[in-house]
Specification:
The chain is an all-alpha fold. The protein has ten helices and no strands.
Length: 203
C-alpha cells in the first residue's frame, strides 16, 4: 500500500472516523424535532434529507437541512486538506458515508446529494457551483428533484475525473455510484412514471 496511499494508518483512521461522525449528524431529524414536527422518518419517504423535510411544509427547515447537510461534507474536507488531496478525499468520503449510514439511526440516513455538494465545495468551490447549477436546472426542467440530484452527481463526478486530480476523481465516482444505489427506488418510479414531481406554487 505504501507508495499508493500517502497517509499512515493512524492518520487514516482518525480522518475516517472524524469525517464519519461529522457526516452522521442527522440534521433533518434534529431540526424537525426542534420545530415540534415530530419524527421526519414517519412522513413521506421516511428519509431525513432535504426533500423529505420539505414535505413538512417548511421551506425554512428544508433550506436549513440542505445547508447543514452540505456543511458536514465541506468542513471535514477543508480540515483534512492539511494532509493533502488524499486526506481531503478520505474525509469527504467518510462524511458522505456517515450521512447515508449514521450509526445513531440504525445506519438509515439520507441519500447523499446535499453532502456530495458539500464535499465538492470543500475541494473546489467551482465544482460545487457546477453541481448546484446542474441540480437546480435539471430539477426545474424535468420537475423531478431526484432526477436532478442524480444527474448532477454523475455529471459532476465525470468532470472530477477529467480534472486529473486522482483522489478527487476516485472519491467522486464512488459517491456517485452510492447516490445512484440510494436512489434505486426513485429510479424504478421514474421508469414507471410514478415518481413525485416538484409542485410550483401559484402565488
Amino acid at each position: 500500500m505504501e507508495g499508493l496511499w500517502p497517509l499512515d494508518s493512524l492518520t487514516t483512521a482518525i480522518i475516517a472516523l472524524a469525517g464519519y461522525l461529522c457526516g452522521s449528524i442527522p440534521f433533518g431529524l434534529i431540526f424537525t424535532r426542534m420545530a415540534g414536527l415530530g419524527d421526519i422518518r414517519s412522513i413521506g419517504s421516511g428519509n431525513i434529507g432535504t426533500t423529505n423535510v420539505l414535505r413538512t411544509g417548511s421551506k425554512k427547515l428544508a433550506a436549513a437541512t440542505l445547508i447543514a447537510d452540505a456543511l458536514k461534507g465541506t468542513i471535514p474536507v477543508l480540515i483534512a486538506a492539511h494532509w493533502g488531496p488524499a486526506g481531503a478525499a478520505l474525509a469527504g468520503l467518510a462524511a458522505f458515508i456517515g450521512h447515508l449510514f449514521p450509526v445513531w439511526l440504525g445506519f438509515k440516513g439520507g441519500k447523499g446529494v446535499a453532502t456530495f455538494l458539500g464535499v465538492m465545495l470543500g475541494f473546489a468551490w467551482p465544482l460545487g457551483l457546477l453541481f448546484l447549477a446542474l441540480w437546480i436546472s435539471i430539477a426545474l426542467v424535468t420537475r423531478y428533484s431526484s432526477l436532478g440530484g442524480m444527474s448532477a452527481t454523475v455529471l459532476t463526478a465525470l468532470v472530477c475525473v477529467a480534472s486529473h486530480e486522482a483522489w478527487l476523481g476516485v472519491v467522486a465516482v464512488i459517491m456517485a455510484a452510492i447516490v445512484l444505489f440510494a436512489h434505486r427506488e426513485n429510479i424504478a418510479r421514474l421508469r414507471q412514471g410514478t415518481e413525485s414531481k416538484i409542485r410550483f406554487s401559484k402565488k
